[in-house]
Amino acid sequence: IHYKLRTPNSYYPLKKNGKFNRIAEANAIHSVLIGYKRGRFTGMISPSGWIEKKSNQPKWEVLQRIAPINESALKLASPDVWRQQRAFADNYIESKYHIGGAPITALSANKYSTEGTQKMSAHVDGKDLEFGMTTMCVFRIGDFKGAYLCFPRYGIAIEADDGDVLIADSNELHGVTPIEGNGVRLSCVAYCDEHVATMGIGGKSENPIGPHNRDKQGSLEDFF
Prior knowledge:
With 224 residues, the chain is an alpha+beta fold. The chain contains 5 helices and 15 strands. The protein has helices at 49-52, 57-63, 66-77, 79-92, 220-223, and strands at 3-7, 10-13, 25-26, 32-38, 45-47, 106-112, 120-123, 134-141, 144-146, 149-151, 156-158, 165-168, 174-176, 179-181, 184-191. The strands form 4 sheets. A 6-stranded antiparallel beta sheet has the order 5-4-6-15-8-12. A hairpin with a 4-residue loop joins strand 10 (149-151) and strand 11 (156-158). The longest helix is centred in the middle third of the chain and has 14 residues, at 79-92. The chain is globular and about 55 Å long.
């Protein structure tokens, strides 16, 4: 009752006079993409900027271990979903994009503390497989309260202990409540991005756009 969605990740807030604001607000979503993606402006699949940074290579080597651990949790908790996600990744996504050999193409790292990012607004993750599940491992440093993974539509809030793996449908509206205290909550979301698929009938070949396509020269009319 306090907002009206404009898009899945933006909304019109309710004003004091009982009317919705005419200007939409975007969700506060602070995270780091680690993995592979299809560039919106290049048409090509490439590692995220974080991976390509040389100083992050030792961290990347460690983070890749998270994917197979999360996969094992998904296989145990929801074997049917795991089989579908595993089949999709094996049939349509090149193995070089499988992080740690798992049917996972991207990690999203998040850090919550009272001195930094304190919460994450409710949102949906549009690139995740429609039939798949997103897994998230959580690490706790020090003591804190709050920072619950919540699903507003269902009135559910989940408190994760240190080392827990949470499994959920990221296409459902979800967020993280404000953190309280001096501790830090770290999480790493692992998911399969369907846009990275390039093989078979479930994939889409890479199509370099504009200056990224050196083999194809055309006029402005060809572009349009």
